[in-house]
Amino acid sequence: MKMNDTDLPRIFLGAPSILTPEQQTTLERWVVCLERRSFQVIRLGRDSHGDDPWRTLIPLLADVDGVVLLGFRQLDARDAVWRPDTKEEAPSSRWWTSPWLQLEAGMAAALALPVLVAPEADVKEGVFNPEVWNGRVNGTQLGTPGRVPEDWLRAVRERRDRRVPGPGLP
Hints:
By secondary structure, this protein is an alpha/beta fold. The chain is 31% helix and 18% strand. The strands form 3 sheets. The chain has a 5-stranded parallel beta sheet with strand order 2-1-3-8-9, sandwiched between helices. It has a two-stranded antiparallel ribbon with strand order 4-7. Strand 1, helix 1 and strand 2 (40-42) form a beta-alpha-beta unit. The chain is globular. The protein starts with 9 loop residues before the first strand and ends in a 7-residue tail after the last helix.
């Protein structure tokens, strides 16, 4: 029996809207890789948020089976200091990505969605820090879209199976 688009696991793919040509190529490779794994990739462009981005994002995330967030470099923070003039003063992560990705990750985790993050080199803030990758958030390298953790794949497919009943089931 052939699956239709509504039967495919739905993946929200989040990434910054403004990318370098190289980053855009990497993003396109991720889309192709996910689609080859029989995922329906759902993206939300910058202009799709409208006046109230929460009104758009919350129902969209509530209707997907997993989330992939691509942490492309957006802010050069190589000369920044984290918590200056405190006992925890430290150099900042070298590069930061879009703060929207942190919000999307938090919303996805709150909805108990399987989250996969893939940071570009030297992006290590928030959810892109490998120290926080655990059962709720999985991580991989941005430059290797074919290497998706099996735990994440299994969690996405299990969520999809709960959403779409099998043949002959109500």
